[in-house]
Amino acid sequence: MALRHQLELFPGCGVTLLLFDRLRNAAALRKKAMEGSMEGAFINPAMIVDPFQILVAANKAVHLHKIGKMKTRTLYSEIIFSLSPNNNISDAFKKFGISDSDTSVLIVLVTDGEKTVNVEDIASQVEGQQVSLDELPRLTDTDKIKKLYKITPQEEKIGTLLDSIVCRMSTKDVL
Amino acid sequence: IPKRYRHPALEERLSRRRTAQEARSLLRCRRAGISAPVVYFVDYVTNSIYLEDIVDSITVQDHINSLQQSGNDTSSLLVLAEKMGELLARMHDEDLIHGDLTTSNILLRPPTEKLDLMLIDFGLSFISGLPEDKGVDLYVLEKAFLSTHPDTEAMFKTLLKTYAATSKKSGPVIKRLDEVRLRGRKRSMIG
């Protein structure tokens, strides 16, 4: 049910995506994430259109982590920051991170090399139902995403929503 | 591609600036609805840009060559020229100068008959509203066009006609193009 993917540019680096619905302990999870007592990036699935969006964010975060140029303090917070179309860190957390009232969560885990990810350990702390990533479109809030990423109508004609989002994520540092 | 005759610190800054400019131009294009490859990742360490791979695309250069070889060309080439004129007009209306316009820097997405054009290779691009810069941009294309593709004067003329009709700011640009053409042939600018 979990989605696992290797980062092409960083062989050996794996990204695992876990999606949970009917979430009851969003507040507790957020607290654990902030404390750093639980591994993973806790993301609001409403803001994600496709797992590729996460992979692009993770790729950038891993790259910056490896060269010591992350803008945030941890790899997981950097993934959340990379999702944002702008360079405001706290805004990124507010919009893309998990909120106390959320009823679903997308958890992203990154492993480099030999370390394996203990999915059961993470899942046991989540009070909700794990579902397949195929259910993601049902949880996506397309209108909210279009507004946040400021997608223009002309842009929608030449590509997918995912294209527009990825472009903004990858080029925001030069703007 | 590092140029070995350049001073290393300068090379790094130039590459970095070019990379940033290319990324900026690509985003600018897409935001305006001008077809350009999607940027997946920009690596400022190696100054490389990871772009969308346009599978099964061919360059306009190859397309023109194959059409001319098969002999079936005239009307389809003119329609292609119109599409190119329209695309460039929209790009220039965004004040985006490509900097290296050639027929190998314009792709045709599959299926070829749809004439869905995409601009690529923005490594020398920059932002400018000046008719001079836009005129030079077109001049570069004209020279590349006529030297690469024989007997395409009519095609380029159609391209310019559509450009002028599509672009809201074309008047001064065409004027500048004429002036640049004269500059190219005659060395002296003294009247």
TrEMBL record, chain A:
| UniProt KW keywords | Cytoplasm, Nucleus, tRNA processing
Mind listing the GO biological process terms from this record? tRNA threonylcarbamoyladenosine modification
Record has Cytoplasm as a keyword: yes
InterPro entries from the xrefs? CGI121/TPRKB (IPR013926), CGI121/TPRKB_sf (IPR036504)
Record Pfam families? CGI-121 (PF08617)
Superkingdom of the source?
Eukaryota
Please give the GO cellular component terms listed in this UniProt entry.
cytosol; EKC/KEOPS complex; nucleus
Q: Where in the cell?
A: Cytoplasm, Cytosol; Nucleus
SUPFAM superfamilies according to UniProt = PF0523-like
Similarity comment text for this entry = Belongs to the CGI121/TPRKB family.
User: What is the name of the protein in this document?
Assistant: EKC/KEOPS complex subunit TPRKB
Question: Organism source for this protein?
Answer: Smutsornis africanus (Double-banded courser)
TrEMBL record, chain B:
User: Per the record, a Pfam family?
Assistant: Kdo
Location of the Protein kinase domain:
1-191
Keywords from the UniProt entry: ATP-binding, Hydrolase, Kinase, Nucleotide-binding, Nucleus, Phosphoprotein, Serine/threonine-protein kinase, Transferase, tRNA processing
Q: Name one GO cellular component term.
A: nucleus
Primary site of residence: nucleus
Q: Which reaction does it catalyse?
A: L-threonyl-[protein] + ATP = O-phospho-L-threonyl-[protein] + ADP + H(+); L-seryl-[protein] + ATP = O-phospho-L-seryl-[protein] + ADP + H(+)
Q: Where in the cell is the protein located?
A: Nucleus
Class in the EC hierarchy, top level: transferase
InterPro entries registered for this protein in UniProt: Bud32 (IPR022495), Kinase-like_dom_sf (IPR011009), Prot_kinase_dom (IPR000719), Tyr_kinase_AS (IPR008266)
What highest taxon heads this organism's lineage? Answer: Eukaryota
An example GO BP is: tRNA threonylcarbamoyladenosine metabolic process
Molecular function per GO = ATP binding; hydrolase activity; protein serine/threonine kinase activity
Give EC number(s), comma-separated. 2.7.11.1
Q: Where is the signal peptide?
A: none
Q: Which family does it belong to?
A: Belongs to the protein kinase superfamily. BUD32 family.
Its quaternary organisation is: Component of the EKC/KEOPS complex composed of at least GON7, TP53RK, TPRKB, OSGEP and LAGE3; the whole complex dimerizes.
Q: Report the protein's function.
A: Component of the EKC/KEOPS complex that is required for the formation of a threonylcarbamoyl group on adenosine at position 37 (t(6)A37) in tRNAs that read codons beginning with adenine. The complex is probably involved in the transfer of the threonylcarbamoyl moiety of threonylcarbamoyl-AMP (TC-AMP) to the N6 group of A37. TP53RK has ATPase activity in the context of the EKC/KEOPS complex and likely plays a supporting role to the catalytic subunit OSGEP. Atypical protein kinase that phosphorylates 'Ser-15' of p53/TP53 protein and may therefore participate in its activation.
Q: What is this protein called?
A: non-specific serine/threonine protein kinase
Q: Which organism is it from?
A: Smutsornis africanus (Double-banded courser)
